[in-house]
Design goal:
16 helices, about 0% strand, mainly alpha
Length: about 375
């Protein structure tokens, strides 16, 4: 044992290994004793029943069902061909042996070659496994033929031209990724966008020359050679023919380095201008007065000098706050109020006149009815 050679006495790993070995030895002894008791009881039973060795072997195989120590060749050598054939015929149906198999265990195309495992019932349903396998194969159901009307409509030129093209929609949820058709016969199905896109992309008639060339390795190599040739022409010919001032402007305005350099230069120029042109006291006072004026009239003022739009808003606000403008606005509001009151009064008078006219008609009808009733009473 490796732990005894490497570890000293009293080590916990060595003690655990020795304890495990002792337990395994005890389990082996218990299993050997159990097997010996079983064999002795079986031999005693067979001797008491006065069974022959063949009958005892058959009885033991039928009871155990899956005995792995029995070999077909050993049965032939021990019991003989006729006895082994009778034994296997007696075991037919109980241990998974197919009917009609000879004692030589020739291979059948339906069930494969004969092995030691095929002599006994496999795990599971023994009765179900005892039959031939081809009897339990599920037959595929054939799809029903289309109706005659649909076939006639599709075969006719009018029906064939009028039918819409139907596509299948792949459903990955609930169908295991199988293709599932949507819609019944004669109903136009939804067009699969992915299939339509693929057909559109793979259409050679709609491809450009570069796309057609890129479909083959020779075309890709040719395109790479054209790009390299254009690069050489640009560097050696076209770039040298351009004006230096134009190249400088393009480099400054359109390249990343040029745009960054322009931004840095503008920031530095603004800082230098603020430092070089410091405002005097008059400019500072003027700036403060402008801020107060704009805040008084509620007009926002930018950090730089105010523009004409801001000054126009200040002018309109200041004009609206003059006494003359306020008086004009008050008079306009008073005239508008009088017009509204006059219109309201006329509307009320018209309503009263309509009500009086309706009431007068009712009173005349009542007086007429009263005169008629009095005349009837006098008569």
């Amino acid at each position: 044992m490796l732990s005894r050679q490497l570890l000293p006495d009293g080590h916990h790993v060595r003690e655990g290994a020795e304890r495990a070995m002792l337990q395994s030895e005890l389990r082996k002894q218990e299993s050997l004793e159990r097997v010996s008791r079983t064999r002795s009881s079986m031999s005693a039973t067979h001797s008491a029943a006065n069974l022959s060795p063949t009958a005892a072997a058959a009885d033991f195989l039928l009871k155990s069902g899956r005995h792995r120590s029995v070999q077909p060749a050993a049965l032939d050598a021990t019991l003989g061909e006729s006895t082994a054939q009778k034994l296997l015929a007696a075991l037919d149906g109980n241990m998974g042996i197919l009917k009609g198999r000879s004692a030589r265990f020739e291979q059948e195309p339906l069930d494969g070659p004969v092995t030691h495992e095929s002599l006994f019932a496999p795990p599971g349903d023994v009765f179900n496994r005892s039959f031939k396998r081809n009897l339990f194969k599920k037959k595929k159901k054939k799809a029903p033929p289309p109706p005659a009307e649909e076939v006639a409509r599709s075969s006719s030129p009018e029906g064939g031209m009028g039918r819409h093209r139907t596509d299948s929609v792949v459903s990955l949820s609930g169908t295991g990724g199988k293709v599932k058709a949507i819609g019944g016969p004669g109903v136009p199905r939804e067009k699969d966008p992915f299939r339509a896109w693929k057909l559109e992309v793979m259409d050679v008639n709609k491809m450009t020359m570069k796309e057609i060339k890129s479909r083959s390795f020779e075309g890709i190599k040719e395109m790479q050679a054209d790009i390299k040739r254009d690069n050489r022409r640009f560097r050696n010919l076209w770039l040298r023919e351009m004006d230096e001032d134009l190249l400088y402007e393009d480099r400054t305005l359109y390249t990343p380095h040029g745009m960054l350099a322009t931004e840095v230069a503008e920031r530095k120029y603004d800082a230098w201008k603020r430092k070089a042109y410091k405002p005097n006291d008059y400019t500072v006072q003027k700036k403060e007065a402008q801020k107060k004026l704009f805040s008084y009239y509620g007009v926002p003022m930018s950090s730089s000098e105010p523009d004409l739009k801001a000054w126009g808003r200040v002018l309109r606000e200041s004009h609206a706050r003059t006494p003359a403008e306020r008086e004009r606005v008050r008079r306009e509001q008073e005239a508008q109020r009088r017009k509204e009151e006059e219109a309201r009064r006329r509307e009320q008078e018209e309503q009263r006149a309509a009500l009086a006219q309706a009431a007068g008609g009712v009173t005349e009808k009542l007086a007429d009815q009263k005169r008629r009733s009095s005349a009837v009473v006098q008569m």
